[in-house]
Amino acid sequence: MSSVLSPSVAYRLEAARAVVSDAARLAMSMRPPSGGPVATQKSAQDWLTETDGAVEAFIAERMKTLFPDDGFQGEEEGVVRAGALRWVVDPIDGTSNYARGRNRWCVSLGLLEGDEPVAGVIEAPALGEVYTALRGHGAFLNGRRIQASSVKDPASAMIEMGWSNRVPKDVFIEKTDAIMGLGAMPRSGGSGALALADVACGRLDGYVEIVINLWDVAAALPLLAEAGACVSPFLKTGGLTGAATILAAAPHIARPLSEAVNIPLE
C-alpha cells in the first residue's frame, strides 16, 4: 500500500465532510418520530425508508458535480459510475434505529483508490458526532485524534456482534457464545459503521459481523487503520464485490478474539 496520497485526496475529504454534513441535515429533517418503524421491510429486520433513497440521491448528485470523473457506489443504486477513485455511500447505516426515531444511525461515505480505502467520513447527527480519516494522517472524532482501546485482557473487553438475517441462527449463537467464552461483554447496537467507529475510538474493544457489505464499512476502514485497530482482510475475502465477514479489534485482544470466533486476521 502506498503511503503517499495526492493533495487531491485530502481535498476530496474536505469536500466530502461538507456534503455529508448537508446530507445528515436532510436525514434529520426527514427522521420519523419515536415509535414503531416508519419504513418498508425488504426482508426480516431489513428496513428501507424514504430517507435512504433521498440521501443517497443527494450525495450522488453532489459528488458527480464536484468530481465527475470519480466512481460512485451506493447501497440502494449500486455502482453507477466507474473511476480510479470510487466513493461508496451508505445513506443511512442503522436504518432499523432511524425508522423508529432512535439516535444510533449515521451517514457514511468512504473513498477507495483502486482497491485501497484512503478516506472516510461518518456523521451521526443525532449523536452530534463526526468521524473523519485520511490515510497516513490520522483518525478523528469531532476534530480530536482517536485511537483503539489499550485493553489487554479479553475478560475486560466489550465486543459487539452484528446481526444479519443472512446468517443462520446457530452460527450467530456460536460466535456470540465464543465471545462470552472469552469473558467479554457482548453488545449489539444496530449500526455496523458506528460499531466499527467505536472500535476505532476505543468505545468498543471489538466488532464482529459474519455478513456485511462494502457500503457499511468503506468509511470505517480508514478510521480503523489510522487508529491502530486490527482488521480482518475484508476486501481480500470478497468485500469488494459482495458481502463478506469482518472482525475489527483493539490490538492486544485481536488475536484471542480472532481465534475464538475463527475469523483469521491475515
From TrEMBL:
InterPro entries: Inositol_monoP_metal-BS, Inositol_monophosphatase-like, Inositol_monophosphatase_CS. Pfam families: Inositol_P. Signal peptide: none annotated. The keyword Metal-binding applies. The keyword Mitochondrion does not apply. Belongs to the inositol monophosphatase superfamily. This is Inositol monophosphatase. It comes from Acetobacter thailandicus.
